[in-house]
Amino acid sequence: MKNREPWVSAFRRDIRSSVRGRATVLTVVVSAVILALALFGAGVVLRGWFSDQNEDLTERTVEATVHAIDRGERRNPIPVGTDEASMIQVVGLDGRVLAASEELQARPALVVPGGNTLINRKVCSNPGVRCMWVYGVRIRDSVYGQDAMVLAASPLPLLTTGWVLSLILAGLWAAVLTLIGWWTWRTIGLALEPVDRIRKEVVEIGKGDLSRRVPVPPTGGHIQRLAEAVNETLAQREEANTRERRFVSDASHDLRNPIAGIQARLEVALEEPEDYQWRPMLREALNDLQRLSAIVHDLLELSRLDSRAPMPMKQIDLAELARREVARRMPGVAIVPRLESGVIVQANPVRLSRVLNNLLNNAERHADTRIDVLVAREDGQARLEVLDDGSGIPPDVRERVFERFSRLAESKKRDPQGTGLGLPIAREIAEIYGGSLTIQDSSKGARFVLRLPLYREPSGDEAQ
C-alpha cells in the first residue's frame, strides 16, 4: 500500500490538473452520453425486432391451424409444423382448452378469450413459463363448436426481458467506456511522451551543458516543431554564451593593455628625479587613457544596443547626413560623394551618424587615394555605400570583421590602437532599424553596403 499511494496520488492529480487527465475525462463523459443514447436505441430496436419475429411466427402458426380446422381435421394433440410455433391451443368461450399442441397438454389456457375476436400481445401471466407472444383468432363455426379461439404462443428470448437487456446494455456501456477511457489515457500519454522527454532534457541542459540537444521525435506536427524550436533556441543560447565568453575575454585583454601602460608609465615617472621632463610620458599616458575611453565608450554602446534601449527616431535624408559627416572629416584621403537626394529613412540621427563615421574611419585606414560615398534607392530600400581603393577584404573573412574585437592582420598593422568594435556596432545599429550591413564584391578595395527600409508616410487609417 505504501508503494501504491504515491502512484494513486499522482494519478488523481493528473486526472484533475493535467491536459491528459482533462482530455480523458472529457472524452469519457461525451462518449458516455453518446453511447447511452446509442445503446438505448439499440435496445429498443432489438426488442422490436424480436417482437416482430415472434408475432410473424405466431400469426403463421394460427393461420396454418385455422386452415387445418377448416379442412375438417380434428386432432389432439395438434400437430406442429417445422416453421410454426410449438405452443398451440384451441380455447372455448369459457376458457376451457379444447385442444392443444403436445407442449401445452394439460396446461391451462394461455389467454381467456372473453369477448375478444383477435389477440396479439405479450403475455407473462402463466407460472413456470417465461414471457411469450400470443396471437389468437376467433373462428365462428368449427369442429370445436361456436366461437372457439385458436391461440399460438412463442416464448420471447430472455434477452428481450426488461431487466436482462438493461443489465446487458449497462455492462456493455461500462465496458466500452472503460476501454475508451483507457485507450484515450494511453494514446494521449504516448503522444505526450516526447514532450516529457524534452522537459527532462531541458532540465538537465539547464544545469549548464548547453551543447546538449533535446530529442526530436520523427512524428511531424506540433511536437516535432516544438523540439526543433527548442534546439534552435539552445543553439542560439550556446552561441550567445560563446560570444559572451569571447567578448569578456577580448574586452579584458584590450582593457588590460592601456591600463597596464598607464600604470607602468606612472610607476616609472615616480622613480624619475624631480627635474625630469614629464611631458612626453604624460602624452603617452594620455594616449592610453584615450584608447581606454574609446573602448569603454564602445562597450557601453554595445550594451545599449544589445538591450535594445530605445532612442528617439526621426526622418533622415541620407544624402544630407552623408554630406554633413563628410564635411566634418579632417583633411586626408579624398572623399568623393555621389548622393541622391530624397532618400528618407527613419532612425536615430546620432546612431546613424555613428554608422557612417565608423565606415569612413575604416575606409580611411585602408584607402590608398580615394573613398567613394554613394546614397541611392534600390528595390524599395535606401542604399548607402562606402568604397575605398585599398587592398580589399578576402571573401572568406568578410564576416569575421563584424565579430566583436576581431581585427585582421592588416587592420592591426595600420591602426594598432583600434578596438575592433566599430564595424560590429555599425551592423548592430543597421539591424535594429530593420536593415543590413554587408561587404560586397568590388573591382578594387572594400565595398561596405548599408541597406535600410525607406520611410513611408502613414496612410490615414494608420495615422488614426
From TrEMBL:
It catalyses: ATP + protein L-histidine = ADP + protein N-phospho-L-histidine. It is found in: Cell membrane. It comes from the Bacteria. The chain crosses the membrane at residues 21-46, 163-185. InterPro entries: HAMP_dom (IPR003660), HATPase_C_sf (IPR036890), HATPase_dom (IPR003594), His_kinase_dom (IPR005467), HisK_dim/P_dom (IPR003661), HisK_dim/P_sf (IPR036097), Sig_transdc_His_kin-like_C (IPR004358), TCS_sensor_his_kinase (IPR050428). Residues 250-456 form the Histidine kinase domain. Its EC number is 2.7.13.3. The keyword Transport does not apply. It holds the Pfam family HisKA. One of its GO terms (molecular function) is phosphorelay sensor kinase activity. Residues 189-242 form the HAMP domain. Keywords: Kinase, Membrane, Phosphoprotein, Transferase, Transmembrane, Transmembrane helix, Two-component regulatory system. It is an enzyme of class 2 (transferase). One of its GO terms (cellular component) is plasma membrane. PANTHER family: SENSOR HISTIDINE KINASE TRCS, SENSOR HISTIDINE KINASE YKOH. This is histidine kinase. It comes from Streptosporangium sandarakinum.
